[in-house]
Design brief:
Keywords: Methyltransferase, Transferase. This protein has 360 residues and is α/β, with parallel strands linked by helices. 48% of the residues lie in helices and 16% in strands. The model has no long low-confidence stretch (mean pLDDT 95).
Amino acid sequence: MNEHTEITPFDEVKAEAFADRLVDALSAAAVVLMTSIGHRTALFDTLAGMPGCTSEKLAEQAGLAERYVREWLGVMVTSGVVLYDPKTGVYTLPPEHAAFLTRDASPNNLAVTTQFIGVVASVEEEMLARFRDGGGTHYHHYGRFHEVMAEDSGQTVVAALIDHILPLAPELIERLEHGIDVLDVGCGAGRAMFRLAEAFPASRFVGVDLCADAFAETQIAAAKRDLNNLSFRVQDLSEIKSLGSFDLVTAFDAVHDQKDPQGLLDLVYGSLADDGVFLMQDIGGSRDLAANIENPLAPLLYTISLMHCTPVSIGQGGPGLGAMWGVETAQEMLAIAGFGQIATHRLPHDPTNAYFIARR
């Protein structure tokens, strides 16, 4: 040991405080997992619609097995999510809690977001191997990813598209009403394009994604609704030179985990009409770790980045930018692509993401 090395004394108080934090984290992780189950089984929605009930009544109303519902309620009561009266055996979900846990609470339904923990946890063994060999993963490793992503973006993007997101480019709604050509790259489930196709029948919409199963349900729904102005196609965006010419191109939480993010932005630039607009929504963190320390969502964002975004990009042969590639990097890459006008926006309903309006 170097004679000048100072040995930091062991601080028992700090050690105990850290142990307490880990215990709290363990309990919080359990609550998050059980919140996901409460969402998927509609237990929160059912309980919120009742003035108070026993476990038997809740299970009957939800169409579930009482023994499991009772154990789930044990988690909810001991974590303070659900109130319990031991004298009557009645459980109650306070309206202040229901405001962040039920489907009626959208876009504030945090129970939707809790599902990501189960999705990324399902690839733990795969990721242990990737830590050792440096390789990547593929979309098929994540069982419910497209489903959960679609539900999450349904709250943050689809529901807010017309009233909050499109007005970031003031002329867009009028142009959509008159009729323009719109492309969504990395469209996922395609619900954003479905929403716009319904709202603006004079415009034409195309969704492109690497995975056909991502938009399969929406494609069927569009056919049933006779939305002839909406189409989807499977396309590896890293393998083409041109997408055509579009008046509006969108990318919702899609650029950072591409095989070639810069190449995609170059492709988008080359596919815009002269007066076209590129609307990109992506994670609004910083590429500077220190700048993210005070962000309460940073541990979740880095976890999703580690377990999904980074390895999926690497699995395609990409750079693995990760979800926390940073607003700074996004702005720089947009400029490299050729965009001369880049405006970055934050929206009150969405603390996680940044919205970019880019023009030639």
